[in-house]
Amino acid sequence: MKIKLLAALLLITSASAFAQQQAANRPTMVAGFPVNYSEDSVGNYTLPELLKTSDGKPVTTAKQWTEKRRPELLRLAEENQFGKMPPKPKDLAFHAFDKGTPAFNGKAIRKQVTVYFTKDTSDHKMNVLIYLPANAKKPAPLLMNISFAAYNQIIEDNGLRVGEIWNKEGKKVKADKPTPFGKLNVEQFIDAGIGFATVYYGDIEPDFKDGLAYGIRKTYLKAGQNEPAADEWGAIAAWGWGLSRAMDYFETDKQIDSKRVALQGASRLGKTVLWAGIHDPRFKMVIASISGEGGAALARRNYGETIRHISDPSRYLYQFAPNYHGWADKVNAMPIDAHMLVALMAPRPLLLQTGSTDYWSDPKGEFLSAVAAAPVYRLFGETGPAASATMPAAGDTSLLMNHLGYYMHEGGHTVLPEDWKLFISYMTKFL
């Protein structure tokens, strides 16, 4: 009887925890605006033409896409969503303060590199951590991750520099406390013959409303400017710009195959790696995890988070170009949508990873985006979900191994340990 009672209590506790998780992933009111989670209320919408040029001509070949349509869409995405970014800075410099130390019982080589964005090396710099397979006979492919935490907080290695992070009060503090993100198993990448690199996003630009005063964007303001112009970069573009500066370093390191570098990030950093990969074709692959609204989820679907929620002054104005927020109340008139962002990665491999209970990020909206973008991949002879494809159930890997892949785990707004194993399978195939 006691065993049955205990089992019942455990079941109730488990059900309660699941209900709490569902509630956390389904806020009903955000920034004073209601949130819809009913498919009956997503509204009617027509996606803007993907395979038709601005002058109305159909796009039927990969050459037409590459030379005509892609540049048009890239410009629209810059001007209306993420903002224009500056080029590689002329004073960019690198300092490898850890040039190759054995790690993980000798199976990896560890490097730590400071990337200086400006001539003044006291500010505007990021630390990049790199692990490479020690037994590699040739330059190694690499997964470049952008993280919410300093790398010493997410990787178990006593040789790591203790970084600094931004706290909730907008101050830089020593990154010497544990994080809710847990530790990442780097050895699984090394065992697969793939290097791993990571950077803390706050090294590039702080993630808060007044972060402009401290981040790299500040150094590009023109005389008399207090904020970016309407079509200039937000924080997401700044984080993506920083990833390109990491790539600048990879191109100088003979132990890294800079032609085989993949990007991975989650949530707003899923949006970041998608935009970084689009804007910088040197990146071979992108794994965009739970990127949601402003990432791979269709904006025209009134489901979960919307541009209106993002654009409230109390939330994420600073992450996008100011022009983006003008579409909050007229999203159906916006000249772009997420299927265009997804298509802009073609023909390079792109994996969209979502979660079945991540209602706020609209996993179905990401799936529909991939379906709508797949015709562009097919122009190049590459695979993507068919127009007749049905949305896979949680855990179904049937669409994972497409050039344009989609995978939804059972769970919410996170990257699970088992997801990394699937990422490695995807990288092994395409990288």
Automatic annotation (TrEMBL):
It comes from the Bacteria. Residues 1-19 form the signal peptide. The keyword GTP-binding does not apply. This is 4-O-methyl-glucuronoyl methylesterase-like domain-containing protein. Residues 232-381 form the 4-O-methyl-glucuronoyl methylesterase-like domain. Keywords: Hydrolase, Serine esterase, Signal. GO terms for molecular function: carboxylic ester hydrolase activity. It comes from Dyadobacter soli.
